[in-house]
Amino acid sequence: MSLAVLAWSLLLAQLMLGLAFCCAAWRVLRGPRAQDRVVGLDTLSINGMLLLLTFGLRTGTDLYFEAALVIALLGFVSTAALAKFLMRGEVIE
Amino acid sequence: MMRRLLPHPLISAGLFLVWLLASRSAAPGPALVGLVVALLGGQALALLAPGRLRLRRPALALRLAGHVAADILRSNLAVARILLLRRPDRRAGFLHIRLTLRDPQALALLAIILTATPGTAWVDHDAAEGWLLLHVLDLSGGEDWERIIRERYEAPLLEIFA
Amino acid sequence: MTGHLDSLPAWAAWPAAALLLAGAGLTLAGSLGLLRLRGFYERLHAPTLGTSAGMACVLLASMLVFSVLQSRLVIHELLIGLLMLVTTPVTLMLIARAAIHRDRQEGADVPGQASPERREEKSKE
Fold first, then answer.
1. The pLDDT of residue A3
2. CA of C54: which chain A residue's CA is closest?
3. What range defines the domain where residue A10 resides?
4. Is A48 contained in some domain?
5. What is the ipTM of this complex?
6. Would you kindly state where each structural domain of chain B is located, as residue ranges?
7. How far apart are CA A8 and CA B69, in angstroms?
8. Number of domains composing chain A
9. Within 10 Å of residue A90's Cβ, how many Cβ atoms?
10. Are residues C52 and B118, on separate chains, in Cβ contact within 8 Å?
11. Per the domain annotation, does A93 fall within a domain?
């Protein structure tokens, strides 16, 4: 009984995170301005990371954790670079 | 001697813990490598930034951390309610607050606190005069944001980084 | 596919399920905010839901399940939590500063350089 609850709530959580992922993707595609897209991209990477963690729970392997860690790091670096680009028009000064 | 070996004891301890978490074991091998990483990390930071991080009041810092955790949880629920219910009288806007806080590390910590709390976002800071520009998602609640930030966050930070 | 969860006792399964649903729900609420809120500075608040309590709940659920399944303390998820806690404010501040910089250059209706006094002086001139 309790395991069925966990399995179903895992599925529901994944669906909700997938929907959240779609919302962020819509904001990236829609804009309207560059900074909106960057915020969308940041949210996208966070939602993707949480989705990977739930996949890790579903399969019971540690591999997804590593991927989530890499995405968290890459999300930070890419958003910082994009924000810098918005500010100055170039990444490396 | 101790000071030359460990210029930033807190940073080194944090690095050591992060290393143990990343290697997922406390076996002697990883612990030894972690020790080397922590010592070298502290040294490297001392070369980069000459200032020393010092916490005057550890108990107060812990209490501040507790307050912040509670505030983050509370404002999470508040912002979720705002987003899901869409109240028509909600009013978002910018806020100017004059800070007395000048220490760069304390300011960085205040920025982390304000941005990590949903509902408030740090937008700009004028280092010369201490004016902080904040964006608040819901100004209609009647909370005195300036007083909250001054008394709840800035006052303890001033004492901790005195 | 969820066969490995069979050995999980009920006292761990229920809180894990609740934490998962709460975390995913908060993250979804934040991302819905990206669609619903009008104006860039309001949308800036949307991702913070997922990076604070949303992420904390999912990480706690993961820690709980793996700790009970492997019957040892599995807390490497703390690493992600620590990382997100420190990096999100930095990215959001950078984006906000870039946005207000761009808005000021375009002459949009945003507050100027962060001092009201100086602004009043300017308007008197």
1. 76
2. A50
3. 2-88
4. yes
5. 0.84
6. 2-48, 58-160
7. 30
8. 1
9. 8
10. yes
11. no
